[in-house]
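step=encode ok
step=design start
structure_in=
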């Protein structure tokens, strides 16, 4: 018996991607990146910038990708995604993803794609964009190729993406069934690692989202964050300092739940409901913790941004590692598809 036999966390091969569509905010940090940070410790992680995925919806504005991709990669590195532990790369730098997507497209029944819930939802929600395209219908299959090309065991995703992992499992099964002997499957069936949604709401209490204009960006400076928090709404019942309030009706309370200690939260409960403390005092207590967390990240980000050549080298190395792994899979795929006629 070796050590890993009774190790409950046998390292897994993990893959996840994020679309470069704008500056990352604390919702991304708390909802996704903190999860990745945990996973990179004891697993082989592949994290990539899904630039082709961004183009499935923003094909008419390719400058969005160009303007945001390095900001996103800087945000990843600043929060501590570690190139020593994880392979960090850009999707389009590994064209093998597209080759596998193409080969999968031949054997994937159309209804499998048409019934993916995000398909009709997104077309409805993003009315201003024409998403009646071939590529938009097929993007969950591109995602399957992203995942299977690294033989990933597990994929950390939010709830909305779970059907895409389900599709990936079906695609893996179909490929194995059509082309391989039952006892010699090529692709594993990856599982979804469901990431709980971020507990941190936006500044107005709704979900933190660029489209609501209620975000705190990872890369903004402290004065900006402080000003945003100090002017964010509180329990509307607290018109005057002497009016008691109810933390449950105040988005600042959700911030305390993420950042403050149990003692401080008791102080907020008592002080708010008895008008013993003012809202600025209450916010200042939470802001101390937030600053402690964000300042080192922002310092690191500034330092990284001053050395973009080093950052590009990090991603170059990641691209090469990813290409190597993807290339090995594609050799097996081509062999499986009897492409021995290639010279
Ligand atoms: N489709 C994902 C999203 O929109 C991003 C993504 C692309 C992804 N490829 C992936 C996530 C592979 C996990 C695994 O958020
Ligand atoms: Fe919100 Fe704190 Fe003001 Fe109460 S005291 S309303 S919890 S900011």
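sequence_out=
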């Amino acid at each position: 018996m070796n050590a890993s036999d009774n190790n409950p966390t046998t390292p897994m091969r993990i893959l996840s991607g994020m679309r470069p569509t704008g500056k990352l905010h604390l919702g991304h940090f708390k909802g996704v990146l903190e999860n990745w940070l945990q996973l990179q410790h004891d697993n082989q992680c592949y994290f990539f910038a899904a630039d082709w995925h961004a183009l499935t919806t923003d094909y008419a504005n390719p400058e969005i990708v160009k303007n945001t991709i390095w900001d996103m990669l800087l945000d990843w590195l600043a929060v501590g995604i570690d190139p020593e532990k994880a392979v960090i790369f850009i999707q389009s730098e590994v064209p093998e993803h597209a080759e596998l997507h193409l080969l999968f497209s031949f054997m994937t029944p159309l209804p499998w794609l048409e019934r993916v819930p995000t398909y009709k939802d997104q077309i409805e929600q993003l009315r201003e964009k024409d998403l009646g395209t071939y590529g938009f219908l097929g993007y969950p299959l591109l995602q399957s190729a992203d995942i299977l090309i690294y033989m990933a065991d597990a994929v950390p995703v939010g709830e909305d993406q779970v059907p895409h992992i389900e599709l990936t499992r079906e695609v893996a099964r179909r490929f194995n069934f059509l082309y391989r002997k039952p006892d010699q499957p090529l692709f594993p069936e990856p599982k979804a690692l469901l990431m709980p949604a971020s507990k941190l709401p936006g500044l107005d209490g709704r979900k933190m989202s660029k489209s609501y204009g209620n975000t705190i960006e990872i890369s903004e400076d402290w004065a900006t964050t402080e000003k945003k928090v100090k002017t964010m709404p509180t329990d509307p019942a607290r018109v005057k300092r002497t009016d008691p309030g109810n933390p449950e009706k105040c988005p600042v309370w959700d911030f305390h739940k993420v950042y403050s200690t149990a003692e401080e939260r008791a102080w907020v409960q008592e002080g708010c409901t008895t008008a013993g403390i003012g809202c600025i005092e209450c916010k200042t207590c939470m802001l101390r913790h937030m600053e402690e967390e964000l300042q080192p990240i922002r310092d690191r980000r500034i330092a990284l941004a001053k050395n973009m050549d080093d950052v590009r080298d990090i991603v170059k190395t990641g691209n090469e590692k990813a290409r190597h792994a993807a290339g090995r899979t594609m050799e097996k795929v081509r062999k499986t598809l009897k492409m021995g006629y290639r010279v």
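step=design ok
step=annotate ok -> The two ends are 45 Å apart (CA to CA).
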